Amino acid sequence: MRNRFDEQLEQLHVELIKMGALCEEAISSSVKALLEHDEQLRKKTFDIDAQIDQKERDIEGMCLKLLLSQQPVARDLRMISSALKMISDMERIGDQAADIAEITGYINGMGGQHRLPIDEMAQATIKMVTDSVQSFVSQDLELVHAVIAYDDVVDDLFLKVKDQLIAAIAAVCLGLSIFFLLPGDDAVYAEISSGGKIVRTVNLRIDQQFTVTGETGGSNTVTVRDGRIAVTEADCPDHYCMERGFCSGGTPIVCLPNRLVIQFQGEQSVDAAAG
Predict the structure, then answer these.
(1) What is the C-alpha separation between 154 and 259, in angstroms, rounded?
(2) What domains does the chain contain, in order, with CATH numbers?
(3) pLDDT of 149-193, one tens digit each?
(4) Do residues 200 and 262 lie in contact, with contact meaning Cβ atoms separated by under 8 Å?
(5) Smallest Cα–Cα separation from 29: which of 19, 46, 41?
(6) How far is Cα 131 from Cα 236, in angstroms, rounded to an integer?
(7) Alpha-carbon separation of residue 132 from 59, 96, 258 (angstroms)
(8) Among candidate residues 123, 102, 148, 150, the one with its CA nearest the CA of residue 24
(9) Is the pTM of this model over 0.85?
(10) Lowest mean pLDDT: which of 90-94, 170-174, 200-204?
């Protein structure tokens, strides 16, 4: 009788591992579909979610049969109860992956945001799923504690992604707010602000290079060459300010982490300010 029960528990472990593998595949497919705007992977994610739902029903049926036929107690009862909780959690992972796939249908990929550590966050999440299922099956207490600790890695990546997205949105809002105050494409001067205060006004006709250090300690190297200006070095995490390259007008060059703004001015604007 006990041997039969042990065989059924072993089969339960196998099915849990299979369900965990489906969850890993769902995470990977949904994130890759998001980053690369891959329609086939997006559809595949929905199929995997359906398989996860079916696997949950199958494992739930196995657990109920074990409870009714074997009437387990103590450690065996706790194991089956834990398995029921696990499949519920893994089913939600499939739903979350499907949600990501659904969102992908409304956007044109994340090509311009490739530096966001979304893929790294997905890989960390997959590792947690793999290790958590393995720790349950093998009853590895040390691995259990490692999974719990590794959750901090995913949390840190989440905060990093959130902060970078907020910075990008703020930069767009700032650019739109002052768009209509900008001069034409042939500005003569550039006004440099740090922490909301004007720290320097440079003549774009004079080649020069200097470093602006903000109140937060962050620094940006500004280079003026051939009538244009650019941030050529910066210690900010995203380097959006450097991506603008050399400019002689248009929207401001902004480094939100270091609170640096370079605005373009015509000669009349500078004369008026001086007067």
Answers:
(1) 28
(2) 2-176 (1.20.58.220), 180-274 (2.60.320.10)
(3) 999 999 999 998 888 888 777 777 766 665 555 554 556 889 999
(4) no
(5) 41
(6) 35
(7) 17, 18, 40
(8) 123
(9) no
(10) 170-174
